[in-house]
Amino acid sequence: MCFYIGVSSGDSSQISRFIGDSSSHSASLESDDVISWCTVTPGGHRHYVPTCVDDSSKPVVNQVFDSLEKGMTFYMEYGQLCGFDTRRSTENKDDDNIIILTKYVVCGRAGFKEKKNQGLSYRISAFVEDHNRELASGEGRQFLRVNRQMSFASRKFVFDSSKVNIGSSQSFSMMKELYGGYANVSATVRDFRNLSRDLRAYVDERDTQMIIDKFKVKHESCESFYRAHDVDAEGHLTKLFWADSIARMNHELYGDAI
Q: Where on the tree of life does the source sit, at the highest rank (predicted)?
């Protein structure tokens, strides 16, 4: 699947040539369903053409977008409706390595190539609907990467669970029960695991310094907050003690410390 988008400035020379040729897919109709038509090339390759969207949601040649980002968003939403993922692929930048001149956004092994020039609009110069794999069904679309987005509540739930030693798999199972099913989580257990991995990578070996810095901020905002720590010869934390104002008052009254 691909559509090619190029600069629309009234000069056809600025529209680069289409990547690939749909006419090479000389195919015969094999079957159809509510999701896609399946065609087979003379070489035995299968191609699937979506049939699940109306014309207003389908890219068409000479369709114009105000910006490159709007064209990419349109293609992503088309993929959501049809049952396939989209991803950003290779890109070429200018000599200063700042401005993106061309970029591929693809599905499978095909895609569309975008030219970027500031201040210009963009239009579709060619569009191929064929896919080299079956499209996701209605029930399966929720698990496509393009439809999986972890909300802030989900991210915080994973973070809070990690603080009490609840792993990502258990967090996912708990959220599934809270939300009433996998379909309502809008993420997979792999997404939960990836987030836990990213959290660990962010903290890495700075966990000790993070808590010392936090205690330092507490002391600066409240002088009665006391903290002390010891480290070994290699700089590893060996002892950590803190007491807030209430704990210090209790110690003065009762003389006990835990």
A: Eukaryota
In 3-state terms, what secondary structure has residue 146? helix
> Are 169 and 222 part of one and the same domain?
no
Q: Is residue 142 part of a domain?
A: no
43 and 115 assigned to the same domain: yes
Helix (H) or strand (E) holding 228: strand 226-231
Residue reference for tokens 């997404």:
191
**Which of helix, strand or coil describes residue 63?**
coil
Largest CA distance in the chain: 91
Structure-token pair, residue 206: 């700075």
Asked whether residue 108 is assigned to any structural domain, the reply reads yes
Residue type, 34: V
Of residues 122 and 108, more confidently modeled: 122
Q: What is the pLDDT of residues 14-23, one digit of tens each?
A: 333 333 333 4
Taking all residues of the chain, what is their mean pLDDT, rounded to a whole number? 72
Residues 70 and 39 in one domain: yes
Q: Determine the residue type at 74.
A: F
In angstroms, the CA 103 to CA 89 distance is 7
Using alpha carbons only, give the angle 231, 233, 239 rounded to the nearest 5 degrees: 20
Same domain, 119 and 9: yes
Query: From CA 76, how far away is CA 146, in angstroms rounded?
Result: 7
Q: What is the pTM of this model?
A: 0.42
Is residue 134, in this structure, part of any structural domain at all?
no
Q: Would you state the structure tokens that stand for residue 83, as one six-digit string?
A: 């049952």
pLDDT over 90 percentage in the chain: 2
